[in-house]
Amino acid sequence: MRVHNIEFTVDLNDILMELKSQLNQNRIDLLHDIKDGPKNIQVTCIYHANGHEHKPSAGIKKDTGVYHCFTCQETHDLPEFISNCFGKNDMGAFGWSWLLKNFLTIEVENRNVSFDFSRIVPTADNTDIKKYVTE
Length: 135
Prior knowledge:
five-stranded antiparallel β-sheet, two-stranded antiparallel ribbon, 24% helix, alpha+beta
């Protein structure tokens, strides 16, 4: 899934399940119903009825993470939606840090680095001179 040109290798459903789990740990009663679909994940809207709907009325696109409620017409990107779930009105700053902390993986390339500690310095006439650091 790609959010604002950052690739997340985790599935949106996994993000929402972790979000629901952390909301429950913080005693925030939201996201009662999460239903996986082919292109969207349906969730209960957090913006109307105090988040206590009987059926999901909002969808989050799996490819972009854009949230849209079909009842109240709220539309947000995924970081802003996550921020709002935690009660933050910060344009998604908390949501970004939450996503990066919980789901960003970075691939690190290992490189072989060799150090020459022989202290031999080649000269122009192809004779090697041993160099030492004085005490």
